[in-house]
Amino acid sequence: MLLIGDTVQGLLGSRHYRIIDRLGEGGQGAVFLADDGRGEVAVKWYHRQNAVEQQREMIARLIRMGPPGGEAGRRFVWPLDVVTKKGDLSFGYVMPAVNLKSYAELGQVWARLRPTPGMRQRCRISWQLAQAYRQLHLAGYCYRDISMGNFLFDPKSGEVLIIDNDNIGINQQSGSRILGTMEFMAPEVITGRQVPSTSTDLYSLAVLLFYFWIWHHPMHGMLEYNVRVWDIPAKKRIYGEMPVFIFDPRDGSNRLPADPEYQTPLRFWDACPKSIRDLFIRSFTDGIRNPDRRVTEGEWVHAFRQLENQIARCPHDRAENFWQPGMKQLQCWHCHRRFDAPPRFVISSSSGLKHVLVLPETKLRRSELEPFCSEESMDEVVAEVIQNPNNPNVWGLRNLTGESWQFMPADGSEPREVVSGRAVPISAGHEVKIGYQTNLRIEV
Length: 444
What we know:
The chain has 444 residues and is α+β, with helices and mostly antiparallel strands. It is built from 13 helices and 24 strands. 35% of the residues are buried. The model has no long low-confidence stretch (mean pLDDT 92).
């Protein structure tokens, strides 16, 4: 292993990196903080048994090809250079340094070492994670080792980073000594029927999202509870040979045991929105038997972006609750009291219907009004809920698009133009035409 003060040399850029601190160690190697004369970077240095030529060539290829494009591509902490040390048979690679004061691992949240993200941040973390893997797959890559330890998130902002990208390969082309982390591997990889691919990545992504939302593995029920020796054969049986989802609506053989340690996932499942529960059920029932039925990254992105706009606080205890289409009232998951659902903006466009709760802090982003906008512009605020300064009981939706809207009052009176900077009153039945393809209706 490297020592503090050692210097390693880049093979691709001929730059030297001085080791200044040790950050951690994993199964393949250790990660160090280094200085290249211009700033801090991170260096992953492989254990000798993992420093094989195939790995070196794969990393060099990733550096040449570069990360996926767009905003999602910047969430990958991508390799920058291959490094060696004189007289050492091992090697490593350089990547950007990550500010670990801002970013957390899921395990740190479970241990209460870092704050638990709010519901809105959870939705943002989830769709950013899915969108990043979507861009990776569109670029022709497969990740091959999606797991809980390979992604970081900012609990406050919901921003995501994906680390340990040295096992990424070209889908259906690159060979690899890494099959993944067993708890996250698709059953066909565990049983040896398939090698890692974008299809098996979809299964691993679903497991990771389930861990993130339910804080439990989707197959850890009675079948796992009754295992006496939790060894490799037992894991292969539970995860690969006879996987049964703990919330399978048709097969109850792996329900959660009546044990206090297994009650947390049950509570989180009950609080989880039906739209997400349905995707998990599909992932771990049909998606196990038929890989073509697995939930795609785009479906996860769509579902979680919808939920980001459907969060209402309970007026009794301020707990965050999810509204779903058709609900007239919500029952708080924390205090169990009921409260009326807020009004909604119902936005119809070429991509279908979207529902956004009307709250004092509601802001509409470009992606809500323009479904096929670029990822770089999707978070741009194009409308906001405002309060009339002369009458606090009157609320409106201000146009921030830079273009005029057409406002159609609920009483059927003459439509009128709403220029940029002006607002339309928020009242049941009012409609707004935005551009050529988007209509917004106010519903209570």
